[in-house]
Amino acid sequence: MSTQVSRSSKTQAKFIGWGAIIGLFLLRLFHGLGTNFTAHDEKQVFLIGLRSAVSGVPAFFGADVVYSQTGIPGSLMGYLIAIPMQLTRLPESPWILLNILSFFAIGLAAIQLTRSIPSLPRFWILCWLLFCPWSLEYSTHMLNTDYLAVGSFVFFAAFWELEPRYRSGLLSRRMAAFLMGAALLWSFQFHLSWFLLLPFIGWAALINRREKDRWSLLGFFAGGSMLLALFLLPLILEFGPSSLFLSFKSNVKSVFSFPKFFVNIPKILLRLLSFSSFELGRFLGIHHRVSTVLKYPWAVPGIVLGGVLGVLQVLFMIRAMILSPRGAGTLKITRKVIWAIFIGLIFLFCFSRKGPSSHTFWILSPWVFRFFFEALDEAIQRFSLSKKFLAGIQWSFLFAMLSFSLMLSLHRYPRVSVVRHREKVLQALDEKDYGLIGCRLDDLANWRGPLSGRSFVSPLCKK
What we know:
463 residues; 2% strand; two-stranded antiparallel ribbon; 64% helix; mainly alpha
């Protein structure tokens, strides 16, 4: 009898667990489908895939680098947007695929972290990674940085499995090496910040240099890299190997800008630590923030609570960076990594044509999340915080996250979402004319990039 009760309770627990996971996915998908389809960057990214879908011409480049009139190399983004629409004829299908991929990537990192930090509730870590404003907004909608999140979270989940002090046993060493290689070439095709992953590849190689399986790991890493490198072949065959680094060369200065060194210090510190915090201002819009929130009175308590918690989080992490941690955990190592990232970014942006916008180093965000969780775990143990106090903090975060997500989704859906414009997308697919949605930047006569004058151009976009 007791055995039957035990089996029944386990089945019920699994049912509830899978139900919760599906519910979390649907909440993120609902948010992603409501994001701004009409904004310039989102529309341009969507048009990359739509043009490929209606013309059959591969998208040789991904997202545009406007200020140098170049593009991120590779056809991967175009295929990820075009193929779902070609197969399903659903305008929402690229968002669905992106949300499946990002949910898997963030979930992989969440499982790795819950195994490494077992004292924190697993469900809370998963929810925080999935619904923290930065990860929610930058992994669910039509921007290259949202696709970049997939590569970033997979890369670092795999890297932590190859670092003995972080290893949790989630992945085999060979699988971790394979995923690192694949994630590197994935990231290469979505954002210029891919090179920030290179030091961690060197770290993994150095720490595993004496292991018996080191050559096997190298082979699996190369295999993962080569698999994703296949999406670079259309570009190489059309424009030659030199086109792979055209955008990268165009956005690096050879002269060190000394004034930037001091100006960038506070900007980079606050923007780096905000990745794992409840940052609201950036995502509520530049104009009419207060009036937007007040349209949804039920969300005000959660938004205010989240704003306060977000400020306290950043202050808490600054404190954790300054004070040396106690205990034998990995926080000491993670703290050094955060310092190295911070100092490295200060120097790198002295050579960049672009200022230290947060999205330009979003690829390193998994380390900031790890630092927050480990610092929180250390504070709990140091100050012997009660379970009731911790539960209050955790439920406050969850309440604020849900309020924020639902408010933004309800505000955007009737105005700017792809659902609002789906009929127009269907018309473009049926008539095989992406110009019904808009024109690509490389359609313009003054665009000097490699595709100028050579790409398939909609009749509506010809000058």
